[in-house]
């Protein structure tokens, strides 16, 4: 499949969920075998928060609520565009979320899901490490990068 360059950025959201042990929830992608923060693209008509909660539920089975904005990441340097190709520019918005039910399970897009200590993370999609660190710090102001 040949991808055409996009004319405007895509918007994607990610849900940073930490448990009581200060471990972060990650999902292992079926397309490349790398671990990632659960998330995906915003659908037409969705708010960012709605998309974040939907993507988390679809990829992990967890219900959640958005607690706060962690950061907006629009820098194109060093990000890995999995399916779209390097000509894509994605603005990534990460939210701190609190689990509120559901059963943790993989999906069609994820082969495994689980919590990991922040200092012992599995192989991640390139730019997810920074977002995990930003969420773990818990600073009052959102990151804009």
In short:
The chain is of the alpha/beta class.
Features:
single chain; 145 residues; alpha/beta; Nucleoside Triphosphate Pyrophosphohydrolase; five-stranded mixed sheet; three-stranded antiparallel sheet; 2 helices; globular
Rg (C-alpha, Å): 14 Å
| Global morphology | globular
The CATH class turns out to be Alpha Beta
What's the number of structural domains?
1
Number of helices: 2
Structural class by SSE content: alpha/beta
How are the SSEs ordered, and which strands pair?
Elements: E1 10-17, E2 23-29, E3 35-36, E4 39-41, H1 48-60, E5 62-73, E6 90-102, E7 110-117, H2 128-137, E8 143-144
Parallel strand pairs: 1-6, 5-8
Antiparallel strand pairs: 1-4, 2-3, 2-7, 5-6
Description:
- With 145 residues, the chain is α/β, with parallel strands linked by helices.
- It has one domain (10-144): Nucleoside Triphosphate Pyrophosphohydrolase, CATH 3.90.79.10.
- It is 16% helix and 38% strand.
- It has two helices and eight strands, in the order E-E-E-E-H-E-E-E-H-E.
- The strands form two sheets. Strands 4-1-6-5-8 form a five-stranded mixed β-sheet, sandwiched between helices. Strands 3-2-7 form a three-stranded antiparallel β-sheet.
- A hairpin with a 5-residue loop joins strand 2 (23-29) and strand 3.
- The relative contact order is 0.29.
């Amino acid at each position: 499949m040949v991808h055409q360059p996009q004319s405007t950025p895509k918007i994607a959201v990610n849900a940073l969920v930490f448990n009581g042990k200060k471990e972060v929830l990650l999902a292992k992608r079926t397309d490349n075998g790398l671990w990632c923060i659960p998330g995906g693209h915003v659908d037409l008509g969705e708010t960012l928060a709605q998309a974040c909660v939907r993507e988390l539920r679809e990829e992990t089975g967890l219900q959640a609520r958005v607690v706060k904005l962690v950061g907006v990441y629009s820098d194109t340097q060093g990000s890995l565009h999995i399916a779209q190709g390097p000509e894509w520019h994605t603005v990534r918005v990460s939210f701190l979320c609190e689990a509120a039910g559901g059963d943790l399970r993989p999906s069609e897009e994820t082969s495994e899901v689980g919590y990991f200590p922040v200092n012992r993370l599995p192989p991640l999609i390139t730019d997810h490490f920074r977002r995990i660190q930003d969420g773990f710090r818990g600073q009052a102001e959102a990151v804009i990068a």
